[in-house]
Amino acid sequence: MTTNNLVLAGTITRSRQFDSPAGIAHTVIMLEHKSQRYEAEMLRNVYCQIQVVLSGERFNSVAKNLTAGVEIQVEGFINLQQSRNGQNRLVLHAENVELKT
Asked: Which residues are the signal sequence here (predicted)?
């Protein structure tokens, strides 16, 4: 299987920018999503937070606008990332970002 695509809209709660040792520009944001969806004919509240990584020069023009409080829609793929303390988490690697505000 090769399908790995996620589209998620939400509000940025944190953002930081840095260059890797190889000189690649990265923006890392925390995206908070809140919505309501129907499941088994019942309306349920949906909430999640996910780290989003934007890598490369193609995001340079939009990166300065990615600050706390900004609403965006992100499309990309998810990947497992292990933190220094051994905790696993899913991270969304952006392939497209659209500002909503």
From this structure: none
R_g of the chain, CA atoms, integer Å: 15
Contacts of 9 (CB under 8 A, 6+ apart): 33, 71, 72, 73, 74, 100
Alpha carbons 87 and 16: distance in angstroms, whole number? 21
**Pairing relationship of beta strands 42-55 and 25-39 according to DSSP bridges:** antiparallel
pTM of the model: 0.91
Which long-range contacts link 28-34 to residues 24+ away (Cβ below 8 Å)?
Answer: 28/52, 28/53, 28/54, 29/54, 29/66, 31/72, 31/74, 31/92, 33/8, 33/9, 34/10
Q: Could you report the per-residue pLDDT of 59-88, keeping only the tens digit for each?
A: 989 999 999 999 999 999 999 999 889 999
Length of the chain, please? 101
Nearest residue to 46 (alpha-carbon basis) of 66, 29, 27, 32: 32
- E strand or H helix at 14: strand 6-19
